[in-house]
Structure formats: structure tokens, C-alpha cells
Design a protein that fits this description.
The complex is a heterodimer of chains A (112) and B (117).
Chain A: E1 3-6, E2 9-12, E3 18-24, E4 29-30, E5 35-36, E6 38-43, E7 50-54, E8 58-59, E9 67-72, E10 75-80, E11 89-95, E12 102-103, E13 107-111
Parallel strand pairs in A: 2-13
Antiparallel strand pairs in A: 1-3, 3-10, 4-5, 6-7, 6-11, 7-8, 9-10, 11-12, 11-13
Chain B: E1 3-8, E2 11-12, E3 18-25, E4 33-39, E5 45-52, E6 57-59, E7 67-72, E8 77-82, E9 91-99, E10 103-107, E11 111-115
Parallel strand pairs in B: 2-11
Antiparallel strand pairs in B: 1-3, 3-8, 4-5, 4-9, 5-6, 7-8, 9-10, 9-11
The chains are: A mainly beta (112), B mainly beta (117).
């Protein structure tokens, strides 16, 4: 499976919406439970990645509700509804449907 | 609250073996997969492999001939060995809890490994 993220770089004004896309070369939807095995992570400089979203749309514990995930099958989106300064980071999608697990190449999000 | 603390040698010479350990605190190894990832300088994340506490490990085919992941339930830790390292193995290595329900939900702090003669 190959995950392709877009865009590679994204600049958004504070308070505006940021949208990152992730396209999988094959479906990550497990039909027996109707779950998409797709996660999103945030990584800030010098820190390990932090889980934001799992099963494509479920927020991890403690993640602000301005972060949301959507999509199914092969096309997924991470949205930040109102960008805050602390959201500057690199964002990665990740499929855990099959091995080898794969990450997207990352999207660097900055303030415009 | 589960936490992961990792350690290992940070400077290796070409052809040596990379060895890292990740200790689990605040919880048990039992019932989960445990993964290793790496991040080369300025690059994205690469999954190396994972191990279930009671089964054989699964590895990334790109590293399969050189990698070995093991688990020690008595010490509540798991380990990564990567043989015959080269400069291309220079990276930050991360351990993580790997759950089928919550993806990679807990991460170690990362260990910087440099391979240089």
C-alpha cells in the first residue's frame, strides 16, 4: 500500500481552515467491521509523533475538537477547523490495515 | 497511563549491530503489538516491524534480512536489533504501542542513532 499526501506544504492564516488529503493505493476499509484502518499524527520538532485520529474519524483522547478526520476506502482528509499557532507541525497519515504499515510522506503546516 | 522509555547505543560504526530496548511502564506488554519506526534526517516515518507478545514478529520487507524484534514479558520490555548497519541507517528510532483499535497510540521519546566510521 502506498499513501500519497497532498499538499506537501500548506500555509493557512490563524483562525482559518486547514485541509490535508491522503490517498491510498488500495482500500483500507475492513468490511467485516466497516472500519477504515487509517490514522493521522501530528509531529512537532524534536518530538515523537502524536496520535490525533484513528479509524479515519475518531479523535484520540485529549485531542481538541477542531481536529477532524473523514473519508473511507482510499480517500481521506484531516481538517483543522480554526488554525491555532500551536498547530504548526508536520502531519502524517498512516495505514495499519496491512503489513508493512505505511506512512504518508508528510504535510508541513505553517502560518500564513 | 502507559509510558515507553527507550535506550541504546547512539553511535555505531558501519557493519556493527544496532540494539535498542523499549521499556513499558504503567501497563503490560500482554495483549498488544509493539512496533519500531525510524525517521531518517529530514525525512518521513518508516515502519520497521512489530511483535505481538506471544507470536513471531512481522517486518518491513525492505529490512527483513537484517532486523530482529524480540519481547521479554518478564522485564516488560521489547527490543530491536538491526545488523550490518550503514550510514543509511542513521535515523531517530521510535518504539510505540501498536493497537489494531487505536493505531500507534503511545510513543517512546526517540533515540538518535548515527552510523559513522
Amino acid at each position: 500500500i502506498v499513501l500519497t499526501q497532498s499538499p506537501e506544504f500548506l500555509a493557512v492564516s490563524l483562525g482559518e481552515r486547514a485541509t490535508i488529503n491522503c490517498k491510498s493505493s488500495q482500500s483500507v476499509l475492513f468490511r467485516s467491521n466497516n472500519k477504515n484502518y487509517l490514522a493521522w499524527y501530528q509531529q512537532k520538532p524534536g518530538q515523537p509523533p502524536k496520535l490525533l485520529i484513528y479509524w479515519a474519524s475518531t479523535r484520540a483522547s485529549g485531542v481538541p475538537d477542531r481536529f477532524s478526520g473523514s473519508g473511507s476506502g482510499t480517500d481521506f482528509t484531516l481538517s483543522i477547523s480554526s488554525l491555532q499557532a500551536e498547530d504548526v507541525a508536520v502531519y502524517y497519515c498512516h495505514q495499519y490495515y496491512d503489513t508493512p504499515q505505511v506512512f504518508g510522506q508528510g504535510t508541513k503546516l505553517q502560518i500564513k | 497511563q502507559v509510558q515507553l522509555q527507550q535506550w541504546g547505543a547512539g553511535l555505531l560504526k558501519p557493519s556493527e549491530t544496532l540494539s535498542l530496548t523499549c521499556a513499558v511502564s504503567g501497563g503490560s506488554l500482554v495483549g498488544y503489538n509493539w512496533s519500531w519506526m525510524r525517521q531518517r534526517p529530514g525525512k518521513g516515518l518508516e515502519w520497521i516491524g512489530h511483535i505481538y507478545y506471544s507470536r513471531d514478529a512481522d517486518y518491513n520487507p525492505s529490512l527483513q534480512s537484517r532486523v530482529f524484534i524480540s519481547v521479554d514479558t518478564s522485564k516488560n520490555h521489547f527490543s530491536l536489533n538491526l545488523t550490518s548497519v550503514t550510514a543509511a541507517d542513521t535515523a531517530i528510532y521510535y518504539c510505540a504501542r501498536d493497537t489494531i483499535t487505536h493505531a500507534l497510540d503511545v510513543w517512546g521519546q526517540g533515540t538518535t542513532v548515527t552510523v559513522s566510521s
